[in-house]
Design brief:
alpha+beta, single chain
Length: about 160
Amino acid sequence: MVHKLISTPAANGGKSCIPALKHKVGGEDRVASNNRDKSTALAKCFFPPKPQQSNVQEDGKYPQQCERPKKITKEQILHHLKRLKPYKAPGPDGIPNIVLTKCMDLLAERLLHIFGAMLEWNLQYDPWKTFTTVVLHKPGKPRYDIPKAYWPIALLNTM
């Protein structure tokens, strides 16, 4: 169901239309009636702006910073390849999970070099940094004409 929602082009969604949303912009009441305005209103509700001042305390007690990941192993790669659901929808690379699971013995060594280099040189693959947000209405809400009546479900675009 989620794959169907994110693989179709953005549109009204037919039966699952979001009604016009009432929201505030700079203290002024507004109504978002088209998809672009609704998207903007929902995005502002789901992802509020960063606070103006930092709330980091100079003398506060914080947990120790995480260590940089150690070297990745072939066993770790095999472990994660075995956990893949074989018939789930492929990621943006288009490679079906069944191919990865059936060819894991051939791929593990190559993936070890790729992921090892990414960790060593602190590289990040751009498609892994993007995600799709699916908007679902919260059940039992009396009104669905306000942005807070919806949940954002972020789906990473990974394999």
